[in-house]
Amino acid sequence: MRKITFGILLLIPIVLLAETIIEGKVINEKGEALEGVNVFLEGTLDGASTDENGEFEFIAEETGKYNLLIRIMGYREFKRDLSLLGATIEIEAVLKEEMLTSRGITVRASSFTTGEENGVTLTPLEVVMTPGAAADICWAIKSFPGVQQVEEGAGLFVRGGEVSETKFILDGANVYHPYRYESPTGGFFGTFAPFLLNGTFFSSGGFGAEYGNALSGVLSMESLSLPPERTISLGMGLGNLSAMGRIPLSNNFGINFSGNHSNTKLLFDFNDVEGSFTEYPFSYDLNLNLAWRYSEKGLAKAFFFREKDNVGVSLQDPVWGANYHGTELSNLYNLKIDHAVSDNSFLKFNVSRTDFEKQMEIIAGDEYVLDLITTDEINQTKVMLEKETWMFLKVGGNLEQRKSYFSGFTPSEEDTFDPSVPSNYYDREYRSYIGSIFMEETSFFPYNLSLTSGIRFDRDSKSSKNTFDPRFSLAWKAAEEITLSLATGAFHQFYEPWRYDPDYGNPDLDPMEARHYIVSGTWENNGGMIRLEGYYKDYDKLLKEDDSLNYISSGSGYAKGVDFFIKKSFEKLEGRVSYSYLVARRNWEDYPYLASPDFDITHNLTAILNVSPIPVFSVGAKYMYATGKPFTPSGEEFFSDRLPSYWTLDLSAFYLHSFFSGNLTVFYFSVNNVTNRNNILGYYNGDKNEPIRSYYNRLYYFGVSFQI
Amino acid sequence: MKKVLLVMFIVFVTIGIKAKERATVDKHILAIKSEQRDAVDKGDLEKLKEISSKLERLSTFGDKEWLVNYYLALNSYRISTIAYDNKEMSEKYIESAKETIRKSIKDKDDFVESHALFSSILGIEIGFKPHLGMINGMQSGKEIEVARKLAPENPRVYLIDGIGKLYTPKMFGGGVDKAMELFEKAAELFEKEADKGIYPDWGKDEVYVWLGNAYKEKKEDSTATILYKKALQVNPDCGWAKDILKKDSLKSTEKQLPDDSVNYK
């Protein structure tokens, strides 16, 4: 026994002294040798860099089990377990480009991401610096291709889709009322200010299986995370007051908060806007956002938001002289947890509640023609697991409860404010559930190909209908700077619960359907980007009015078009141009036949140029042109004419200054519609002699934001 | 008893290993710091690249990763500034510096040196992407303020702030005079700064080169020359000061040549 022990002891130094030679070659997926790659044993300095042939060789003085790491910028880390026992080890490593995988972004047709981390197109500051965008995310998104200028508001009409076909999401929570001062074309502004957000993802089609109940587009927003340092800013503009703060309370816990108050009277009076307001648009919002990094593995965020707005407007109805008054109040509460389950998998969970109340009144003379309170309550929870191995996998589910309540009355005939017309009275509550599950995987293949395939299943309790949406996206990185992609898929959207009411709707309505076919090419280099996309969208089962059943699902239509985007910066200039060509046809609602809907805007062009001659000063201009929208001239065929084309030129300027240490003060000044063009938004009763003109003649706005 | 001894043995060995790791990382940092200084003095890009690889390896030791990442960011920053004329390479390294310093700050957000370096990295990035001027300018200012709050008497904070001010027009709170004030304050603080062991203490010589550059900007060439020489006094190997003095002396020789100097061959 003693002999054996002695023998073992003798062996130890031999093993300890053994040197292992590690040699090999590092190439990329195209088979090209990679030079300057760092090849080493984890936790040691033993290693080498590859030469111009991608080859390396080094002697490891260690023995035992070690991880070999191979690292170079722009590629995914290569890791392999090695047993170092004194022999020569040969390694051939193929590195995968980082762009396609671990950054979590898959190249996908039709999407733009914003926010500093992904840095592709817009940061919150860039939203603010988009001329004519009034520091509004939706207005800024409208300067991208695929979004048509239909009204002068924030409504996102995407590629021949109606405004309600674009879905808004915040930290995983569905946002059903994303606009302020809601109107049939969306609303005047987006609900969330850009500085409440870390970043934004916008897709104008072909989006992944994670997103459901949307036919045309998705705008997904992510709220602020842990505040890096304490900042408090106060802002004051023409008719606007705001405060915002970010306070880290410890290394792992922080608060972000903001408050905004806006009363447009000052703005409109200053600019002599001859609006027909009986009560100037007025709003406030409050936001509190707590972020807690409860361990190295996870972050929890609690987001509270409240917004209230009011507006009163004369409907300029020559006969009845009716006035409209509206009040909206919305609250959003969301808890989101991102937790790393392991090195390569992530669990995302959120639970949210939204309530929204809207009160609408139309008064003709002294009599109420319409008085309606709509209440919506949405409770939702979503769980998603993301796992990254040789493929990228997303699996998840979503459950949503929706309650709507209507109380009040409306005229029984459309388009009239005649108080003698009898009223329809409502006092109804509706409730529905939508349950969804989805799965999506992205695999990466040689020759820089990646394929994303997903499937989504939804069930709506109100209509008892199920939908299956398969979706595919194929991307090919044809060259260093060029990516080509194809995307196709089925998309469904259920109606709001009241549409299934047998008295006002139809319990048997099918969900609306769309299929997208997209071809896309992107060239990207050093902050420059060119993208050209062609698409075809096939719509089916759209809502169609019916004499006996109120509505049926027999509407259909299509949209096809080309989107072009170019963005480039030269020294102190930064410019981007978006152009969209669209042909949209629908036979839905009360259309007598297949016709151009009023959101069929043939040409839409936006050009933006920002110049920053010195780092603290920037001036920008935006030109926007849109074909006039279709309308029905009085006594003529349905949607047989178009309004004159719409265009504006907007300017804005920013100047940054520091009055004392730690202070940042931003002065801004903007002029919308510089040329004072009197755009026509429609005609009363289709009569060309009675145009409805834009409120916006030349409009000046200025303000200051001061950081304490 | 045997068990107790065994447990004690394991505990001691574990503690010993941890202590050894720490000592090893510290030892390597010290060695790399000196190699880095030499390579910067010589403008030796190959050596600096080699140091980057070493630091990357050291970052896997599981100790003081934030400090190793600081030096890795500093190394990329040095490569970027030395290779400034090679736009592609310089830009690549400044991007890498940005990414690494962010990592370092994420792991330890109260280390003054990282905030100061981050501020300078953001400034350099503007050179490549002028459209980022406004965003980076803002953030760079914030970072230097954070650094100043963390350590009001750190000479590198003043040096980096001064470099930023030198490239900011006067009307926006920058300018030569402002920069000179900051460089002078930095120089004063550098004189008091002792060797900081494994922690950063670079800049003692550079501050005089920057101050010299500022004087040159004010057309006070003779003062500038004195300052470049001062930099060499502080660090006789300071390659940057040597280079400038060499170029300046060549220029002055050209000036002294007679008018028909073109005919001299």
Describe this structure as you would to a colleague.
The complex is a heterodimer of chains A (708) and B (265). Chain A has 708 residues and is mainly β. Chain A has four helices and 42 strands. Chain A has two domains: 95 residues, Immunoglobulin-like (Sandwich), CATH 2.60.40; 597 residues, Beta Barrel (Maltoporin, Chain A). Chain A has a 22-stranded antiparallel barrel. Chain A has a five-stranded mixed β-sheet with strand order 8-15-16-11-12, with no helix packed on it. The N and C termini of chain A lie far apart (78 Å). The N terminus of chain A is likely disordered. Chain B is an all-alpha fold and 265 residues long. Chain B folds into two domains: 113 residues, Serine Threonine Protein Phosphatase 5, Tetratricopeptide repeat; 85 residues, Tetratricopeptide repeat domain (Serine Threonine Protein Phosphatase 5, Tetratricopeptide repeat, Alpha Horseshoe). In chain B, 76% of the residues lie in helices and 0% in strands. Chain B is built from eleven helices and no strands. Chains A and B meet through strand 34 and strand 38 of A and helix 2 and helix 6 of B.
